[in-house]
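Methods — Computational structure assignment.
A single polypeptide chain was analysed. Its primary sequence is given first, followed by the predicted tertiary structure written as structure tokens.
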Amino acid sequence: MVLTVYRQASKERPDGTIVYKGEDALPYADGQLVMVADGLGGAAAIRHSSIKPELFDEDRLADTLFGGVFDDYSSPALLDYVKKSFAELRSVKDCYTDNVNNIKKSGYFASRIVTAIVLRELLYNESVAAKSIFPALERECSQEKRDELVAKLGKHFTSLIAEKLREIAKNANIFYESSYAGLSLLGTTLTAMLYRELGSDTEVILLTAGDSRPYVWTEKDGLCQLTRDEERPDGGMTNYIKVSDDEEFTINSRYMKFPRPCVIFAASDGCFDSGRFLSPLAFERTLLTTALEADSPEDMGARLHDFFAENGRHDDSSTIAMKLSGYSGFDEFKRAAERRLAETDRLYTSQLTGLLDEDYIGEYERSMGGAPDELSLLTAELKSNENVRAYCENTVKDEAEELTESDSGVRNAAGLCASARSEVKRLAADIAADESDSGDLGGMVEAVNGFNAAKETYESMRAEKFAANLKSAADRYWSDNAAALITDIKEGRSTLPAALAAEIKSAADALSEKLANLGSNAEKQKALFDSYDATYTKYLGGEDE
């Protein structure tokens, strides 16, 4: 039983054309191979506008890519895969260069070409196919010889992909079409799992480059990651496939064996890096709960597609290729999934409410990260409290008044207002002295209007400056005195109004309780995640059993 998940972000154009935006290749799963590849959308963000037009033609696609590169590529399985893998390119055939967002990036072509190269090799080169390579390993009498054979396989695919990717790029007219230096031509990850089911075991040879992941799941151990992500702390990858004259890449190879029944699968980071997953435990439970809701492997794949369509928006693509190995049928796998879910409930989710939904660890770190202690947190929290602000503003009102009166802008506005008032008084005195003379009445109206404008300007400026000074002085007062005021309240010697002191004490008690609970939950969450990770990461140290 195999299944695949292929979710890509898309956008509908006004003319109804669907433009798909992801760089992940079509995932592949058959009787010897599960495989995904995630084309790099950032590091390989070269848009290829000059590709051969034949790539848009379903019937000429394979010849355009592989002609002169491979002697034979007529396998129906290979041709069908390649046609389906490039379906998104054909959907924008008539509008490819109309909009820059329709033009496919280098990572898009890379992931599809690399997976085609791997599939073609496994279909045509019997010496590396599962039916040959696993018996060859079995015949080797020493572990050293077996390790050499596995390493040789990795080197074979490294050189094969490097050579053929370059030749196919020339066929397709894929070259460095960018004014920006430092991008990767045809950059992609690869996770391919070549496998054989034999007796009570499933044997696997991993072929990997980059940060897509191979996994194994068993009812006993749950989900286990099989290789470390090849990336730096800043998220940039240290190894991935690319066409470059000055940089090399490596296809890592590793042999592993797992007791049946088990599930082996490969996934791109659009799956396991979903923002919904605080821990790999959440990823495992999503897979298992989806299985319980499904009627078949195909239905499970369709439901996972819908899940990532809703919860995988952080990435343009989410892809999985999965093999259910050693189960008599899908129902048997579902029963195993149900038992494992019950076990994870018992060991983990029942131990802490909100374990997989609330980021207690992150919230606690954020709470304490901006302040050295609880008192500082409380000081910051109460700064915006309405009653605390009213108390601080009342305390510094005289200071704010003094600052406002001494402000040069306010003083100038006051002077203009006083001058306008004097002008009005002068004109009024002149008119009163000679009641029969009305010649200055027009000037009086103008002077009064001028006075009103000057007065309004002064009062507005004064009010604005006073409000700003009051806020600034109140903030400064609280910053300078909050710690002492809160300490006095806690120790029962506060001189603050009783109601305000009680409110601050209540806030302090509430914060103490909140931090205590949050810290306790964060500590418990970390312990539970660490406990789960001990098994989840068991193979990352090199163990093979």
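Note: The chain has a mean pLDDT of 91.
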